[in-house]
C-alpha cells in the first residue's frame, strides 16, 4: 500500500477526559473493581459497571491510546495494523508441526480498545447452535442463543452505510438493533461489477452457494453481504463506543494506560477459597498495586489472561514448580484448549480495473480517495475492501466416508468460511480467504519464565488433526467450483497460484505450507459446568476455587464459534457485566 499522503484530517478524536497516561494522575489506587485490560470485553465491563454511580472502577491497560491513530480510524488502512507495529504485542507462535515447522503471527492488540481497535472489523455472530453448545457444556441456559440474543442487541447499533445506498435485499433489519452502542453497518463502498458477479453466481449455483439475506440471524449458511463494525465511515471499537464522550467523563471511571499487569496481589484465604485483594502492575519502571474491594476482572484476552493467572500461582502445579513459581491453586486447564482457525488464501487475476490495485498502486487515485475520506468519510477508504462472505457445510457423507465425525455445533453451523471476497493489492485481482471454522486441533498458551514480562509461549496447534486438513482441502475445491459459474467466464484471467490440478496429497502440502491464523484465538480460560474437573471458570465466569475473581474475555469460550469472534466477545462481555452487577446489587 502507498504511504498515506499528508492530508489535514477533518476528523477530530474525542477528548478522553478520564484516560490517564501516568499513575500519578489518578485520584487513588483503591476501587470497588479493577478491570485488567481495556480491550473489546474490558471496556464493555467498565462501561456497564459504572452505570451504577456507587461503583468505582479502575481499568489497567498495558497499551497506548487509540486517540488519533489514523490506521485504526480509517477502515481501509487496517492492513497496516496487522503487521509488526507499536499497537500490538508482535507475538508469533512456536514452530507448528502441522505447518511443516513454520511459525505464524498471532496479532494481539497493545492499544486501548484491544483487538476491536486493530481487527478487520468483521461482525459475525455465528450460529445459534454455537451458543446452544455453550449452554449445554456449561449447564447454564443463559449462554444459549435465545438468551444471548438480547445481549447482541444491547451491544449493536445498526448504522446506515456512509454512502446511503439502498440496502434492501442486503440485510434483515429484524435481526438487528439500532439501540446499542457499537456501530455495525454494511459496506459504504463496493465494486459494482464484482458485486454483481458474486450475486449472480449464487443464482447460477443455488444448491451449493445459496444467497443468505443476513448471516447474523443465527442461521449463517450461504453467501451474503458483509457486515462490519464501522459507523460513519470510521472504525467503531470498544474504545470509541463504550468509552465515548458520553461515558468517559463519569466520575467513577478511571482508565490508566501503559500499566502492564504482572500478577494478582495480596493473596489470602477464607472459607477454603483463595482470594486476591489487588493487582500488581508496572508503569515507568515502578510497581504499583491497584486494590479492589469487590472484584478483580481479568479481560486481558486469550494470551494475557492465562499468563497473569500463571504468574499469580494459578495453573498446572508441575509446570509452575518447574519455573520456581509458588502454586497457590492447582488448576491445570489454565492456558490449555487454545483454539484458533487456520486460514488459506486463493487469488485470481481478472479482466477488470475495479480492484484495490486501482487505488493502492496509483498515487494520484490514492490521494484523491484519502482526500474524499477527509472531506466526508466516504469513498473507498470508508470500507475494508471486501463486500461478501460465505458460510458452508461439508456434506455428512463427505465426512463419514473419510472416517470423520462432524465437529460443528449443529446442522445450521458452517464448517468453512470462504470470506473476504475482494481484491488484494499488487495486481488487478480478486482473492478469497478460506477459514476452517471448527478445528479439532488444540494448542496452549504457557509461560517459560517466572518473569511476567517475558513473551508467553503460544502454540495454536494448527493442523495436528487430519480432519482440519481435510476440511481445508474440501473448502478449496468448493471455492474453485464457485469460480466455475458461467458468470465468471470472461472476468477471471488466471489463478495466481494454480491449485486446481493438484492431487489431494499435494493440496494438503499446499495448505500446510501456506496456512496462517485467522486471529480468532479463544479458549485458554474456558468455561465449564460448576463442579467439572476441567475448565478455568464456572458458568458465572468466576475462576474455579477463587473468590472475587472473574474472567470476562474471549479466553472463556469453550469452543471457537463458527464465525469471527468480535461479536461473540461483545455479547459475552455484556452478559458478564450483568452477572457482576447482579452479584453486587
UniProtKB/TrEMBL annotation:
User: What positions does the domain Glucose-methanol-choline oxidoreductase N-terminal occupy?
Assistant: 301-315
Provide the leader sequence positions.
Answer: 1-17
Catalytic residues of the enzyme = 520 (proton donor), 564 (proton acceptor)
Xref: PANTHER family:
CHOLINE DEHYDROGENASE, MITOCHONDRIAL (PTHR11552:SF147), GLUCOSE-METHANOL-CHOLINE GMC OXIDOREDUCTASE (PTHR11552)
- Sorted UniProt keywords: FAD, Flavoprotein, Signal
Q: Which Pfam families match?
A: GMC_oxred_C (PF05199), GMC_oxred_N (PF00732)
Gene Ontology MF terms: flavin adenine dinucleotide binding; oxidoreductase activity, acting on CH-OH group of donors
Q: Which Gene3D superfamilies match?
A: FAD/NAD(P)-binding domain, Glucose Oxidase, domain 3
> Member of which family?
Belongs to the GMC oxidoreductase family.
Q: What is this protein called?
A: Pyranose dehydrogenase
Q: Which residues bind FAD?
A: 261
Query: Which coenzyme or cofactor does it need?
Result: FAD
Under the heading InterPro entries, the entry gives:
FAD/NAD-bd_sf, GMC_OxRdtase, GMC_OxRdtase_N, GMC_OxRtase_C
Which intervals of the chain are annotated as region Disordered?
Answer: 402-421
